[in-house]
């Protein structure tokens, strides 16, 4: 009988120790004393966690959030879009010509020098006029007179032998023809304080000459440079190639030459 009682007590003691150890591993209830008899620590999980629920602090925060009024989050600012400024419309500008020649008459006069290789020095004066049918095309007529004299070589030969060249001294030249303006331009030259308006030109003429009593056909052609000093005043430089048919020693010969000229004129 005594042995049965002792066996029962030992089993009960063993069962109780097993229960106590199992209870120590489980989290104690909030406020319950620990198995060792010490108060629960504030920072321990037992103080913050209910036996079968989420942490107390998280639960309190969730409750506070559910009770607080809804607050709108401000929307993010929209990015600024810089649109390109519209391009200004290009205005079409047509500049008026500095000087107009169409349906206008020009008169001019100037100095020229005829060189034909005929043993004569032939400076002269030229005068004439032009009427422009179009802005680029004009009809003109001109007359030239030369003061011809033997050059130094011919004078020496005349003094030594008493002979003269069989060429005729240039005297008068009358021509008519056309002048065409190839283009129009303007140029700013430093120091002049203004703009130079100019036109390159081409011309061709035909007519007659009177060279020391010999009368015959003549022609010329060349290039010119017309510069407007004012809208109705101009200066013109021409370089022409001349062609004369002269009678020498009973036969007709062709005489070529050049005649640079510089003239000034105006519009009527």
> Strand content of the residues, in percent?
35-45%
Helix content: 10-25%
Instruction: Label the structural class.
Output: alpha+beta
CA(first)-CA(last) distance: 166 Å
Going across the biggest sheet, name each strand in turn: 1-2-3-5-7-8-9-10
Would you tell me the overall average pLDDT? 78
Low-confidence stretches: 12-32, 34-51, 56-66
Q: Could you say which overall geometry the principal axes of the C-alpha atoms support?
A: elongated
Say how many strands there are. 10
Helical segment count: 4
The profile of the biggest β sheet is: 8 strands, antiparallel, barrel
Notable traits:
268 residues; alpha+beta; 8-stranded antiparallel barrel
Structure description:
This protein has 268 residues and is an alpha+beta fold. The protein is 19% helix and 43% strand. The chain is built from 4 helices and 10 strands. It has helices spanning 2-25, 45-48, 56-67, 152-161, and strands at residues 105-114, 120-132, 137-146, 149-150, 172-181, 185-188, 195-211, 214-230, 233-248, 251-267. A hairpin with a 6-residue loop joins strand 6 and strand 7 (195-211). The longest helix is centred in the first third of the chain and has 24 residues, at 2-25. It is elongated, with a radius of gyration of 61 Å. 19% of the residues are buried. Residues 12-32, 34-51 and 56-66 have low confidence and may be disordered.
